[in-house]
Every structure is written in structure tokens, then in C-alpha cells.
Amino acid sequence: MIKTYVQNCFNGVGQSYIYIWLSKNHQVVYVGMTNRYSGTIGRADGHFNVTGTFRKRFIQNKGYNIERVTDMILLSFPLPNKKEYYSEERSYREAVEFLVHKELLRKRTKVNPTYDVVAWVRDAPKRTGNYEVQKLANEISQAFFAQYVNL
Hints:
single chain, 151 residues, alpha+beta, four-stranded mixed beta sheet, 4 strands, 38% helix
């Protein structure tokens, strides 16, 4: 039996997320963002199907299939319920994702076990200078590192 706690990360109605997939045993982190109607759980299909982006990056990085992972955790961080974050226009979400990605890369050697960030992000999106975007990315990164040892 596999017990899975889903909680409310399936809700994408007027909601967007930054999410982090983490396997401490395999030392892998993947950062992403979504405004998908089915939330981060729905977005997972695009990462774990046969041609999934996380699946491909994991294999490229580790040299073996993701099915070996038994400790995969999904961390979902809701973004503000504001049109800038949940609309089709993605620049605010991309900017937060970019800044979180960079911070997780920057601090990865300060935690044990360390990890590889296997996600790909676009070059600095135009909104990275926005104060609210920077604040959100900082809060998400701090929350991740505050809990990392307990995950």
C-alpha cells in the first residue's frame, strides 16, 4: 500500500503555484510553476509521463529511471490570488520560479545532503526586479530551507 497525502494542491481554480519536487535520497530538486486548473498534482502528469520534463532531466542527471525513487516529495507554494499570477500571462510566475531556482542553486551546498537542481528555467524573466516577486521568491526559498532538514 502507498499512502499519499494530497491536501489541497489539486486546486488550481484562480490559483497558481511554485512547486518543488524533492528526493533527498537521490539528491535531486526540481523547481516549477503552474496555473493549471488541476494544480500541482495535475501538473505532475507533464513531469512524470513517458516524455515528461522532470523524468528526462532526472535520467540525464542520474543515469537511471525515476521509478527507483521512493522518497519523492512535492512541496506546493501558493502564489497570491492576483490576476498577475494566475492568468495566462506567465511573466510573474516565471520570475518567481527563476528567483527560487537561483536561490536553491546558490544555497545547495549549505545543506546536508546537498542536491542537484535539475529543472531548467528561462534566462532572467523581465519581472525579476519587481519587489513583490522578489519577496515571494525569498519567502518560498526561506520556507524550503527552514524545513529541509525535516523533510
